[in-house]
């Protein structure tokens, strides 16, 4: 297949799988004044693919507050949509991409940051980073146009070049350029600064920019995951809160294991988590500020069965509370500390999760005899069952995009992680295993993490990731056993 037809096929697949092409791309850290040399502008796949598909030019939104400091440099992207790659069920078509070691006075630092970018893109399943031993050109200046025939000869479709320098105050400055090798057109370019200890974030930020520009989807690499670290024998595990980068790096313990902690969940609006704390068999809902370490007990609720989850605006928490021999879904207002009952049945209603607009809640219930999934308005009206297949459904969680609900399903002794649309249609199994549980969404709504329990006396839980196609499943490496992952929003 020729290159133009190949990428047209990729974008067609993407349009079938998602609705992102109708949404503007955010450019949270892009420097639009960072242009390629004039001789290299024009033509290529960048604008042609969108024109052929009848798509409007990609919009650019203002930068988000709190991002690493960005500074203008000479030049800016030529505009357009760029190369596009994706995976769909039955089709795997990753983009070959070249990522040379970044230029730097500190060669190790340049290599480390380039390797972070490479690792992020490779794990996504949408890119094939090429072996650096095959590179014909040695990049010596990020501001000079590459020798594109050299990169075409090794069948690279995209090229990322970068440079990192250390300022007198110790901060790191980085710039990068993303090139469409076929057309010789620059697709993105940016310069920004971070504190030295955040050097890995520099790689994640660049990877997010590349991912977004070449797929049309928001990136998800500059994120963190909070989870439960598990050590010790299987019958007497010590469980501690822990946090890590999405790629498993920078693991940090948030508790010491003196008390039982379960099901941490990120706030969508701040670096704050909610989790369950059991002290002397009494369950409590605790809020923790990840920046300061400050903790606050927001409620003592005997009989709570499932973890609290934040509302999209971060002002409320939905949870399950015991009510006699059953349980019901309740909502807690974090400002007033008032609770309100949402579900009114005599069944066991648990595992609630908000829709991204905050107007609906999905939960599991046995009101029809077995565990099934239901959706209700937040005022308790309009309850309707959405799961219709065989088996028992649990742990539902709404996608940040609102287009899918992920769940755990038990069927015939198997534990499945699947997704369905909010109306219950389009159910699809992504993976199955000995004991899968606890799906959590990446902020772009296209990748999930979950944990899988290992078999045997020495087995334990491990965190895995899988994309919506079900083809790209990976284990997330952690120092010890790990369960109950929860994905943060983008940090930038």
Topology overview:
Blueprint (H helix, E strand, L loop, with lengths): L2 H15 L7 E2 L18 H8 L7 E2 L7 E2 L15 E3 L2 E3 L1 E4 L4 E2 L2 H17 L3 E3 L18 H6 L4 E9 L5 E9 L4 E10 L4 H17 L8 E8 L6 E8 L6 E2 L6 E7 L5 E8 L2 E8 L5 E6 L5 E5 L5 E8 L2 E8 L5 E3 L7 E6 L5 E6 L6 E6 L6 E2 L6 E7 L6 E7 L2 E7 L7 E6 L2 E6 L5 E7 L7 E7 L5 E3 L5 E7 L5
Parallel strand pairs: 1-2, 6-8, 6-9, 7-9
Antiparallel strand pairs: 3-11, 4-5, 9-10, 10-11, 12-13, 12-35, 13-14, 15-16, 16-17, 17-18, 19-20, 20-21, 21-22, 23-24, 24-25, 25-26, 27-28, 28-29, 29-30, 31-32, 32-33, 33-34
What does the model show?
It is a single chain. The chain is mainly beta and 492 residues long. The chain has two domains: 3-215, Rossmann fold (3-Layer(aba) Sandwich); 224-487, TolB, C-terminal domain (Neuraminidase, 6 Propeller). 13% of the residues lie in helices and 40% in strands. The protein contains five helices and 35 strands. It has helices spanning 3-17, 45-52, 107-123, 148-153, 199-215; strands spanning 25-26, 60-61, 69-70, 86-88, 91-93, 95-98, 103-104, 127-129, 158-166, 172-180, 185-194, 224-231, 238-245, 252-253, 260-266, 272-279, 282-289, 295-300, 306-310, 316-323, 326-333, 339-341, 349-354, 360-365, 372-377, 384-385, 392-398, 405-411, 414-420, 428-433, 436-441, 447-453, 461-467, 473-475, 481-487. The strands form nine sheets. Strands 3, 6, 7, 8, 9, 10 and 11 form a seven-stranded mixed β-sheet that branches. A four-stranded antiparallel β-sheet has the order 14-13-12-35, with no helix packed on it. Strands 15-16-17-18 form a four-stranded antiparallel β-sheet, with no helix packed on it. Strand 17 and strand 18 (295-300) form a beta hairpin. The longest helix has 17 residues, at 107-123. The two termini are 38 Å apart. Residues 1-82 and 86-90 have low confidence and may be disordered.
């Amino acid at each position: 297949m020729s290159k133009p037809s190949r990428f047209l096929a990729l974008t067609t697949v993407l349009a079938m799988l998602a609705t992102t092409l109708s949404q503007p791309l955010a450019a949270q850290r892009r420097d639009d004044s960072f242009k390629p040399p004039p001789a290299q502008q024009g033509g290529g796949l960048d604008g042609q693919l969108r024109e052929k598909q009848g798509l409007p030019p990609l919009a650019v939104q203002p930068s988000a507050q709190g991002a690493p400091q960005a500074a203008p440099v000479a030049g800016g992207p030529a505009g357009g949509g760029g190369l596009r790659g994706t995976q769909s069920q039955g089709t795997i078509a990753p983009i070959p991409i070249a990522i040379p070691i970044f230029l730097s006075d500190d060669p190790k630092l340049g290599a480390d940051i380039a390797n972070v970018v490479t690792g992020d893109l490779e794990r996504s399943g949408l890119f094939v980073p090429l072996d650096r031993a095959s590179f014909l050109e040695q990049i010596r200046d990020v501001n000079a146009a590459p020798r594109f025939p050299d990169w075409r000869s090794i069948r690279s479709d995209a090229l990322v070049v970068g440079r990192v320098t250390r300022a007198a105050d110790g901060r790191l400055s980085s710039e990068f350029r993303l090139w469409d090798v076929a057309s010789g057109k620059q697709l993105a370019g940016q310069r920004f600064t971070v504190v030295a200890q955040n050097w890995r974030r520099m790689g994640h930020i660049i990877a997010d920019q590349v991912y977004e520009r070449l797929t049309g989807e928001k990136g998800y690499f500059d994120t963190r995951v909070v989870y439960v670290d598990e050590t010790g024998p299987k019958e007497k595990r010590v469980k501690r809160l822990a946090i890590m980068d999405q790629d498993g790096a920078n693991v940090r313990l948030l508790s010491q294991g003196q008390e039982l902690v379960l099901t941490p969940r990120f706030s969508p609006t701040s670096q704050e988590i909610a989790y369950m704390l059991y002290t002397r068999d009494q369950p409590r809902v605790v809020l923790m500020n990840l920046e300061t370490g400050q903790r606050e007990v927001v409620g003592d609720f005997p009989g709570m069965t499932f973890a609290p989850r934040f509302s999209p605006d971060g002002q409320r928490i939905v949870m399950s509370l015991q009510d006699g021999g059953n349980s019901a879904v309740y909502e807690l207002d974090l400002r007033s500390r008032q609770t309100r009952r949402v579900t009114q049945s005599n069944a066991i209603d648990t595992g609630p999760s908000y829709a991204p607009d905050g107007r609906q809640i999905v939960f599991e219930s046995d009101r029809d005899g077995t565990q099934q999934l239901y959706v209700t308005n937040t005022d308790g009206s309009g309850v309707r069952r959405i799961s219709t297949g065989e088996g028992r459904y649990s742990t539902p969680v709404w996608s940040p995009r609102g287009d899918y609900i992920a769940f755990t399903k038990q069927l015939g002794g198997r534990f499945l992680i699947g997704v369905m649309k909010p109306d219950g249609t389009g159910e699809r199994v992504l993976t199955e295993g000995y004991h899968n549980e606890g799906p959590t969404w990446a902020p772009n709504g296209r990748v999930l993490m979950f944990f899988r329990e290992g078999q045997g006396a020495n087995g334990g839980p491990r965190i895995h990731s899988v994309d919506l196609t079900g083809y790209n499943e990976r284990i997330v490496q952690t120092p010890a056993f790990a369960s109950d992952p929860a994905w943060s929003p983008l940090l930038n």
